[in-house]
């Protein structure tokens, strides 16, 4: 958030604020102007106050000591024993109460004050010398303060100039100047605001002296300029330098200091140019020419693009508008003529330019231009700066101009008084609401329940009814809004099927032993060229990021494959095998619309699957593993098969991979990576990948309902079928299911046997069948009939026989 420093004395120049600096900070903070901290000039002066010597008497038990009764506000009085020779009744002095930590007046350390008896009289606290306060070395007498100081205020407020460090919300551009903070405080405390009085400049600048133009009205909304002669460059007045330092800026010379002073005061940046160095006697707001270069004030030669808004003369750029000035036109000690620029820029363009040129470190000016400053500040700030240059630099005004092609119109916001109660939840009287708006300089008209409010010219953040309600709330006090529990009905839980499916898939894949990875959605475009042997794309052209942080993150990935391969390649340098998955969106371009975001599952296995132990033999991952993982996933989540045809998968092994379409979209890709692609990624040749489109998967997932527990017992039967060697288990399983129909609850493959007992070119599948009827207990006869149908079907369809 933007931050400004507000010296209290500077703030009080514009508003007669009452209360201590802590009170002021609290009021601002509670109205939405966040005070981050208060920086006090005598940092360690806690519990030190401005006091008054009410009475002064001799100590009854010591000739050289005195008893001073000290008043320090709110009826507080303490007795202090002192030997200071310079005190008199009525003197205003620093009083440190018990608990204060001060410098030791008789040494170099510090001491914390405690009540103590001095010659039989209790002394509570201390009246302080310069040395004890760290203001000097004098310890012979007490520091006598000005009698005009308010008794009871903190000494840090009385002797120094506290600084409020304020963090602003980005919409409050009107508070980027000290006058803006004063305006807030005046509204909160119901006191008058004293804005700087300046005479309006007349638009009468001779173009032969200075030609001011806007060639890009979208980037530069208003361009004011003044031409000054007989300028004498030198040091600024001491008071101005002190204020700049307190506000966090370094004084340079009067011309630059005055532009900075006005920026801090009003919030509107300005820039001064050496008029004699302007070619063609012109100041132009335009776009940079292609490959135009500019050496900026930081000494860097920058190549500009046509997207960059610049301030230029007739021949060359003088500075990057609103961000950084150029070195050629800066004010020099010999400068006698100044072209003073004060402009209003479109804030988003300033922000984009700063990021494009790597100037994200904000200057005081760019921090303000990045906000939506009111164009109405331009003539006021220009006139204020001209007046100060005349007063403190001996300048003479030769003319001024104000180019404003499309004036900004303040909105009229319509709402109902009842909206205030509806939004805030409390009733605020109509008169109090109108008073709050009046204190904030809003104009308004009312009729019945209808209110039309118009913000002041310096407020650019007011657009809708809720903005008006917020202004009322923060002025009458957020503490008026009660804290209470919601009493309305709770909203019904809204199901998000895709999100639920993602969580199910994630749980299942982790349960299968895979490790989840998370990678960036923005990738290196060079990765996509390495996904096929010849560099041809596996997906339509990727979406490029306009302002990438680096070339390695400049396109939005159209596939998870590149991320999986990169993760696998880096991990396999330190281990023998890997099994990973990622669930993330991929991004596909759509003509004339936002990109399509498709959530995708990516699975990769490569290298060794099992290590050798006394129970297991080492084994590498193979394509049946990745096929089994996805088949197990489909079974676990109740997914059916995809409806479309299969085809070749680019970048994959031609004979060991395929893509299946579903509703004309690639829904499933599975297989072995092309060994040439694996080599390009420094991966094993046996690298296997599966990709599943989650949207397509969701369309084939059956909706699950809670199953009713079975009422009748199951019947278990084991059977072994001898079939020819080429017959697959899936074929046997399908025939069993077809014969048993709804009575088959489950089928399990127990064993596969090949040997002399079944004959050559034969094998035996041992199966366990669980049979159950939903309507009655199965009898032995009914089970035998089912087994007879199964045996007949396997014999008829597959030529298989039941093994005895």
Describe what you observe in this structure.
The protein contains 21 helices and 41 strands. It has 6 domains: 3-41 and 163-189, Phenylalanyl-tRNA Synthetase, Chain B, domain 1 (2-Layer Sandwich); 48-159, Beta Barrel (OB fold (Dihydrolipoamide Acetyltransferase, E2P)), CATH 2.40.50.140; 211-403, Phenylalanyl-trna Synthetase, Chain B, domain 3 (Phenylalanyl-tRNA Synthetase, Chain B, domain 3, 3-Layer(bba) Sandwich), CATH 3.50.40; 413-480, Phenylalanyl-tRNA Synthetase, Chain B, domain 1 (2-Layer Sandwich); 497-699, Bira Bifunctional Protein, Domain 2 (BirA Bifunctional Protein, domain 2, 2-Layer Sandwich); 715-802, Alpha-Beta Plaits, CATH 3.30.70.380. With 804 residues, it is of the alpha+beta class.
Name given to the CATH homologous superfamily of the largest domain: Bira Bifunctional Protein, Domain 2
Overall morphology: elongated
Distance between the termini: 83 Å
The count of helical stretches stands at 21
Could you name the ranges where pLDDT drops below 50 across 5 or more consecutive residues?
A: none
CATH architecture classification of the largest domain = 2-Layer Sandwich
Class from helix and strand fractions = alpha+beta
Give average pLDDT, whole number: 90
Strand content: 25-35%
CATH fold category name of the largest domain: BirA Bifunctional Protein, domain 2
Instruction: Please summarize the sheet with the most strands.
Output: 8 strands, mixed
CATH class of the largest domain: Alpha Beta
Total number of domains: 6
- Describe the oligomeric state of these chains in a short phrase: single chain
């Amino acid at each position: 958030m933007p931050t400004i420093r507000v010296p209290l004395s500077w703030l009080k120049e514009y508003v007669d604020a009452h209360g201590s600096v802590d009170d002021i900070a609290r009021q601002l903070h509670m109205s939405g102007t966040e005070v981050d901290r208060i920086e006090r000039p005598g940092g360690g002066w806690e519990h030190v106050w401005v006091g008054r010597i009410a009475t002064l008497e001799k100590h009854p038990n010591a000739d050289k000591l005195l008893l001073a009764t000290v008043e320090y506000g709110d009826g507080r009085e303490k007795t202090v024993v002192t030997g200071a020779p310079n005190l008199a009744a009525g003197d205003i002095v620093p009083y440190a109460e018990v608990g204060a930590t001060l410098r030791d007046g008789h040494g170099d350390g510090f001491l914390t004050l405690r009540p103590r008896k001095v010659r039989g009289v209790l002394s509570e606290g201390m009246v302080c010398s310069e040395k004890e306060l760290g203001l000097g070395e004098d310890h012979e007498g007490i520091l006598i303060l000005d009698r005009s100081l308010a008794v009871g205020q903190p000494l840090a407020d009385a002797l120094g100039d506290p600084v409020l460090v304020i963090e602003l919300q980005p919409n409050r551009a009107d508070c980027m100047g000290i006058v803006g903070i004063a305006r807030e405080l005046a509204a909160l405390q119901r006191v008058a605001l004293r804005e700087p009085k300046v005479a309006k400049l007349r638009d009468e600048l001779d173009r032969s002296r200075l030609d001011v133009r806007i060639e890009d009205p979208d980037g530069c909304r208003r361009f004011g300029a003044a031409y000054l002669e007989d300028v004498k460059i030198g040091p600024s007045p001491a008071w101005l330098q002190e204020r700049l330092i307190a506000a966090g800026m370094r004084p340079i010379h009067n011309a630059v200091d005055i532009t900075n002073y006005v920026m801090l005061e009003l919030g509107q940046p300005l820039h001064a140019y050496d008029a004699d160095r302007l070619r063609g006697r012109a100041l132009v707001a335009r776009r940079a020419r292609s490959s135009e270069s500019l050496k900026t004030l930081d000494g860097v030669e920058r190549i500009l693009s046509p997207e960059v808004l610049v301030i230029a003369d007739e021949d060359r750029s003088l500075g990057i508008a609103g961000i950084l000035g150029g070195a050629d036109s800066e004010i020099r000690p010999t400068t006698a003529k100044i072209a003073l620029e004060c402009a209003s820029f479109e804030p988003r363009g300033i922000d984009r330019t700063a990021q494009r040129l790597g100037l994200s470190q904000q200057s005081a000016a760019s921090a303000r231009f990045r906000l939506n400053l009111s164009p109405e500040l331009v003539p006021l700030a220009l006139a204020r700066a001209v007046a100060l240059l005349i007063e403190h630099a001996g300048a003479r005004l030769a003319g001024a101009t104000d180019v404003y092609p499309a004036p900004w119109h303040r909105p009229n916001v319509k709402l109902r008084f009842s909206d205030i109660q509806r939004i805030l939840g409390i009733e605020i009287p109509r008169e109090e609401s109108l008073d709050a708006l009046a204190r904030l300089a809003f104009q308004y008209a009312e009729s019945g329940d209808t209110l039309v409010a118009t913000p002041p010219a310096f407020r650019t953040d007011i657009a809708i009814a809720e903005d008006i309600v917020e202004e009322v709330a923060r002025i009458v006090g957020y503490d008026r809004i009660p804290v209470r529990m919601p009493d309305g009905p709770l909203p019904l839980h809204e199901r998000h099927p895709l999100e639920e499916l993602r969580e199910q898939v994630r749980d299942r894949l982790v349960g299968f032993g895979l490790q989840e990875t998370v990678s960036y959605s923005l990738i290196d475009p060079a990765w996509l060229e390495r996904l096929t042997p010849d560099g041809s794309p596996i997906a339509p052209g990727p979406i490029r990021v306009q302002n990438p942080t680096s070339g390695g993150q400049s396109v939005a990935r159209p596939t998870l494959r590149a991320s999986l391969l990169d993760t696998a390649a880096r991990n396999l340098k330190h281990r023998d095998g890997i099994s990973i998955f990622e669930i993330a969106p991929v991004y596909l371009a759509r003509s004339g619309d936002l990109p399509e975001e498709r959530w995708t599952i990516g699975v990769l296995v490569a290298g060794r699957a099992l290590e050798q132990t006394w129970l297991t033999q080492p084994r590498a991952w193979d394509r049946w593993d990745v096929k089994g993982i996805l088949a197990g996933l489909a079974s676990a989540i109740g997914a059916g098969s995809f409806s479309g045809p299969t085809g070749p998968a680019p970048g994959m092994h031609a004979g060991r991979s395929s893509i299946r379409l579903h509703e004309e979209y690639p829904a499933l890709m599975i297989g072995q990576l092309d060994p040439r692609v694996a080599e390009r990624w420094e991966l094993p040749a046996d690298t296997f990948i599966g990709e599943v489109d989650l949207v397509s998967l969701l369309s084939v997932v059956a909706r699950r309902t809670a199953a009713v527990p079975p009422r009748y017992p199951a019947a278990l039967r084991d059977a072994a079928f001898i079939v020819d060697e080429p017959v697959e288990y899936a074929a046997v399983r399908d025939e069993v299911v077809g014969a048993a129909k709804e009575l088959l609850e489950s089928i399990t493959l127990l064993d596969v046997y090949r040997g002399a007992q079944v004959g050559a070119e034969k094998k035996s599948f041992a199966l366990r069948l669980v049979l159950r009827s939903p309507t009655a207990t199965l009898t032995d006869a009914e089970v035998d009939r089912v087994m007879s149908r199964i045996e007949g079907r396997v014999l008829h369809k597959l030529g298989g026989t039941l093994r005895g």
